[in-house]
Design brief:
With 743 residues, this protein is an alpha/beta fold. The strands form two sheets. It has a nine-stranded mixed beta sheet, with helices on both faces. It has a two-stranded antiparallel ribbon with strand order 10-11.
């Protein structure tokens, strides 16, 4: 038994803890029920509560059972407090007041001051409890009687009765045979009791002796119906309806008239009551736990409602945050991808083998023509600047998007301008019969002047094309202009080698710094959300603890325990994209390994004469260049879209079934009353892109991509007629694509 009460104590503690989590008002019915049932669980006594409407003879019945006038009796509602009658060797009264004062008196006279209604039929506000100690053998077995104020008089009294009945192991409902309860009153009583798990109820009819003989049978039939309509749970073989004429029973008991006591119904009722108590008392848990279950069910529902509400708020916040993070992660990956491609192209361009292939001949000619500075500014620098800007723009995209680290510009300086020391001329410099002595058209300022200068330029092209500058051992005799040409070629090779090595070194460091720019820091979540997570965890722990304690006492529940809430992973976390690096030709070029060793020094006499540049036709872009332009355009478009999503208040909303339905309804509504001009515009846009009406967005984008590659004006720079046609075509294509994207 002691172990059982320890289990009940843990259950009571869990109920109280759950109540605290709900922040219930102290005067609320649920809070009062929890306090009452928790105190009752730890009470070893067996309590019998007697209640009914005022003037139904509750106190008279109890006095008859106790054999004396223990309780106050009057013709008006008298009991103004719940009076507990316990066993004591002497008749005594103990009253506890709100301020903690304890009043202990012999007899029951003090009840006149503290336990009856005043002249205005109001209960005293300062009384906490009233107890009477009475020397009765039935009470000595651990039984207590609870005399409750009359109901149907004042709401305050009804509330007190309802609260106190929860702590009664057995309830005696007193009925007035002269005016039985209406159907509505019976339904209210039954619902209130059963909703709280109170099913051990006995009905006692009073005042039957006052009825005429011909009325008694009819009233008794109605009493049976009232009792049977209540689903009482008493030990088998016992009725839940008894008849006691309370006042004749009290008189008979005070006189010691056994026959009169029997005829009043008191003896039969007492015998049944003692037998019922004898069966229920040893297993009080079977009586109390259904009431706990009813209260616990209310607590669980309230906790679950609170848990679900907070969980929805947290999930809504997490969904919005995760959506923002997904957008940022995607943007970071796109930016990193664009940056990696651009850096790869620049690194590829800086590879010495590629620089020599693309620029050595042209630069050597410019050097021979004393036009190197102009060539460096208008060719090499122009190409370098374009590639540098292509790489740097991605870092500025990252800064604009994430507002983290501000980037620095990528600056790759040029080496000092190559200088030549010309060899002395031999006597046969007019001999122009050697291979490569090709004259270049007039109007060029020769480095050496005259035909010899032209021969130098021609030899540069010849020597580079035939790669015979590495075959010196095969040449028995070398002409002067070939010697000068080789000096120009070597000087440019040294220049480009130094430029490549320095540029690749700077680019590597710049790429490392880029990792400090293309990232975003997840901010600390608001304190309000953190507090809600803690509150949610406390509520779920309280819910789970209550569920465990209910299972220990074999109370089943339809609820499942909550799983532990995972902590937020988005707190103080840094995201830096690290996609697989894109391999470039420069990374495969073995010449890269030698770049740091090629740091040529330039000495010699600088020639001051600068010739004007030769006019050049704008070359048509290669297909791979056009593909690169289109790829950059796609990345920029997607990043711009994500920026718009980040700024939009709807960016983080999750599409719900309701919102989708609303959208469909709006679409349907708009289709019912179309704007004909806008419809024609959209139809025309589909025709321009060569698509069927209502083609998907992916099909629109693919069609646009195909047409751009076909009609990009850069493809027709040397074909004026087609160039104009391409420009007009692209104007229509761009306009159509814009219309279909905005529809």
């Amino acid at each position: 038994m002691q172990q059982q009460y320890e289990g009940y104590k843990d259950l009571a503690d869990s109920l109280k803890s759950a109540s605290a989590l709900l922040n219930l008002e102290h005067k609320s019915q649920l809070h009062q029920d929890i306090i009452t049932i928790c105190n009752h669980l730890a009470d070893p006594s067996f309590r019998i509560g007697v209640f009914g409407p005022f003037n139904h003879g509750k106190s008279t019945l109890l006095n008859a059972m106790l054999g004396n006038r223990t309780l106050p009796i009057d013709l008006i509602p008298t009991t103004g407090a719940a009076i507990t009658v316990k066993y004591g060797s002497n008749l005594q009264t103990r009253i506890m007041l709100v301020d903690g004062t304890e009043i202990y008196r012999s007899g029951i006279e003090v009840l006149q001051e503290f336990a009856i209604l005043d002249g205005n039929r109001q209960m005293r506000k300062d009384v906490v409890s009233v107890e009477i100690f009475c020397p009765h053998p039935f009470l000595e077995t651990g039984v207590e009687f609870l005399d409750l104020p009359g109901t149907n008089d004042r709401e305050e009294q009804d509330n007190l009765v309802q609260e106190q009945l929860l702590s009664a192991d057995l309830v005696i409902q007193l009925l007035d045979a002269r005016k039985l309860m209406t159907l509505g009153e019976r339904e209210n009583l039954r619902d209130w009791l059963l909703d709280r798990g109170i099913k051990t109820v006995i009905f006692v009819a009073n005042f039957i002796n006052l009825l005429e003989p011909d009325e008694r049978k009819q009233v008794q039939n109605r009493l049976v119906f009232v009792a049977e309509s209540f689903r009482a749970e008493l030990p088998p073989g016992f009725s839940n309806l008894y008849r006691v004429d309370a006042l004749p029973a009290l008189r008979a008991r005070l006189k010691g008239d056994v026959a009169a006591a029997n005829s009043s119904g008191l003896v039969a009722f007492e015998t049944a009551l003692q037998n019922i108590v004898g069966i229920l008392q040893p297993n009080r848990g079977s009586v109390r736990l259904p009431r706990v279950q009813a209260i616990a069910s209310q607590i669980q529902l309230s906790l679950k409602a609170k848990i679900d509400h907070i969980a929805i708020e947290i999930k809504s916040f997490d969904d919005k945050q995760n959506t923002k993070i997904e957008i940022k992660e995607k943007a970071a990956n796109l930016i990193y991808k664009g940056f990696a491609i651009s850096v790869g192209e620049l690194r590829d361009w800086l590879a010495l083998s590629n620089l020599l292939t693309k620029y050595q001949a042209e630069a050597a000619v410019a050097l021979a023509e004393n036009n190197f500075k102009f060539w460096q500014t208008n060719t090499l620098k122009k190409d370098l600047t374009q590639l540098q800007l292509a790489a740097v723009k991605w870092l500025y995209q990252a800064y604009e998007f994430f507002h983290e680290e501000q980037p620095q510009d990528l600056l790759i300086p040029f080496p000092s301008e190559p200088q030549l020391i010309l060899p002395s001329k031999s006597s046969n410099t007019d001999d122009l019969s050697e291979p490569g002595a090709i004259a270049v058209g007039g109007g060029i300022g020769w480095l050496l002047g005259g035909p010899v200068g032209a021969a130098v330029v021609g030899s540069i092209s010849y020597l580079l094309n035939k790669n015979i500058q590495k075959q010196d051992e095969q040449l028995v005799k070398e002409s002067y202009h070939q010697e000068v040409a080789k000096l120009c070629i070597t000087a440019i090779e040294d220049y480009l080698s130094c430029f490549s090595a320095q540029g690749l070194s700077i680019l590597t460091k710049y790429e490392q710094k880029a990792e400090e720019i293309i990232f975003f820091q997840l901010s600390q979540e608001p304190l309000e959300i953190t507090n809600k997570r803690e509150t949610l965890q406390q509520l779920q722990n309280g819910f789970n603890q209550l569920l465990q304690e209910l299972e220990k006492v074999k109370i089943l529940s339809n609820h499942q325990p909550y799983k532990e809430i995972p902590k937020s992973t988005n707190i103080n976390r840094k995201y830096s994209p690290q996609p697989e690096r894109i391999k470039t030709f420069s990374q495969k070029d073995p010449d890269i390994k030698q770049q740091d060793e090629n740091t040529a020094k330039y000495t010699g006499t600088r020639v001051e004469f600068v010739s004007p540049p030769r006019p050049k036709a704008s070359p048509s872009p290669r297909p791979e260049e056009l593909e690169a332009k289109f790829r950059d355009w796609e990345l920029n478009e997607e990043i711009a879209r994500m920026k718009a999503e980040m700024r939009s208040p709807k960016a983080c909303r999750q599409t719900s079934p309701g919102s989708q339905t609303s959208k469909q309804q709006n679409t349907t509504q708009s289709n019912k009353t179309p704007n004909q001009a806008q419809t024609d515009k959209i139809t025309h846009a589909y025709d321009i892109l060569g698509l069927q009406a209502n083609a998907s967005q992916a099909e629109v984008k693919q069609a646009y991509r195909t047409l751009v590659k076909k009609w990009h004006p850069d493809l027709f720079v040397n074909q004026p007629q087609l160039l104009k046609q391409a420009q007009e075509k692209m104007h229509l294509v761009n306009e159509a694509y814009t219309i279909l994207n905005e529809k």
